[in-house]
Design goal:
132 residues; Lipocalin; eight-stranded antiparallel barrel; globular
Length: 132
C-alpha cells in the first residue's frame, strides 16, 4: 500500500515538474523574439550611482553607448533566449572576453537577464527596457 502511494506521489510530482518546465520554456521561446533587435536601455548601480547604457542590437551587432563612449560588439544567438556578445575593438584584456547572456523572463517591454563572462561561473542579473 505504501509503495503504491509513493509511486503515485512520484508520478504526480513528475507530471507537475514537467508541466512547469515545458510551460516556462514555451513562454521564453515566444516572448524573447521581440528582444532580438531594437533600441534598449540598461540601468545599473555602479558604486551606488545609477548608470545608464543605451544600446541598439541587430541580428549580428550590438552598438552601445555608456558615459559618452561607444562600443560595438558581435552578437551570436545560441537559441531564442541565449546569446554571446564579444567586443569588436577591445581596449584591454578584460574587454577581450566574451559575455554570455540569457533572457530569463519577459514582461511587456522589459526583460530580465542573467550574464557572465564565458567560462566563469559567477553570474549577475540585470533588467533591460526596449525603448524602440
Amino acid at each position: 500500500m505504501i509503495n503504491k502511494m509513493a509511486k503515485t506521489i512520484f508520478k504526480l510530482k513528475y507530471i507537475a515538474f514537467s508541466f512547469a518546465f515545458f510551460s516556462c520554456q514555451k513562454q521564453l521561446e515566444c516572448n524573447t523574439k521581440s528582444f532580438k533587435t531594437g533600441k534598449f536601455e540598461f540601468i545599473q548601480a555602479v558604486k551606488g550611482v545609477k548608470e545608464t547604457t543605451i544600446f541598439e542590437r541587430t541580428d549580428k551587432l550590438q552598438i552601445e553607448t555608456y558615459k559618452g563612449r561607444t562600443d560595438t560588439a558581435s552578437v551570436r544567438w545560441v537559441n531564442d533566449y541565449e546569446f554571446i556578445i564579444k567586443k569588436l575593438h577591445p581596449r584591454n584584456m578584460a574587454e577581450e572576453k566574451a559575455i554570455s547572456m540569457r533572457i530569463i523572463s519577459t514582461k511587456g517591454r522589459r526583460y530580465t537577464f542573467e550574464y557572465s563572462i564565458v567560462g566563469e561561473s559567477k553570474k549577475q542579473i540585470g533588467n533591460v527596457t526596449k525603448i524602440n
